[in-house]
Specification:
This protein is an alpha+beta fold. It has two domains: 55 residues; 130 residues, 60s Ribosomal Protein L30, Chain: A. The chain contains five helices and four strands; from the N terminus they run H-E-H-H-E-H-E-H-E. It has a four-stranded mixed sheet with strand order 1-4-2-3. The longest helix has 54 residues.
């Protein structure tokens, strides 16, 4: 009889301990949830601001640096080839018409250049992301250093192998997927 009584006491003790733990965990989770919400609020505000900016932009021009007109990058390298530099020079040169020579409030000063790096699917995902980032940074550096773009107008992003334009199962497909795109956006004129 005494053993049954001891087991009841242990069971009640464990139940009380578990109940107290559940109450503390629940209140801790609520407190943590509120804290996380407070920490995310500035980020949500920045995200809304970025979405507003993107909605106020339209794609003006696009250049895809890939192997179509000759090699752009050597395998595993972020160094720009002479061919890539020529393509960038021609692309920026075409934009340097009257808009670029106008006043500070011109279309040129309202442009945003997004330089996006992509790779094929060969290799580890982290490596491909990093390689895409290095290649996009190399192109952005050339735009700022050699072409005189305002660095505040240039954004760099890497998609690695996540956005293929062709099948990675073929050599030509992988070649097409290894690219850097320069997307030139301009602010929409409000009506």
């Amino acid at each position: 009889m005494r053993i049954a009584h001891l087991s009841d006491v242990v069971r009640i003790g464990i139940g009380a301990f578990a109940g107290a733990g559940l109450i503390l965990t629940t209140s801790g989770c609520l407190a943590t949830r509120n804290w996380v919400g407070e920490q995310l609020q500035p980020i949500k505000g920045q995200q809304e601001q970025l979405e507003t900016q993107v909605n106020n932009l339209h794609l003006e021009r696009k250049l895809v640096l890939d192997s179509t007109n000759g090699p752009t990058f050597k395998t595993g390298s972020a160094a720009l080839s002479a061919n890539a530099k020529r393509e960038i020079d021609a692309f920026v040169g075409d934009m340097e018409g009257p808009a670029a020579s106008a006043s500070a409030g011109s279309a040129a000063s309202q442009r945003v250049f997004v330089v996006a790096g992509y790779t094929d699917s060969v290799g580890h995902e982290d490596y491909n992301y990093e390689l895409g980032q290095r290649r996009a940074t190399s192109v952005a550096g050339y735009l700022v250093g050699s072409k005189g773009l305002d660095p505040t107008q240039v954004r760099v992003v890497s998609y690695g192998a996540s956005r293929p334009v062709a099948e990675n199962s073929t050599r030509d497909g992988r070649r097409s997927n290894r690219r850097v795109e320069i997307l030139v956006y301009q602010e929409k004129i409000a009506s």
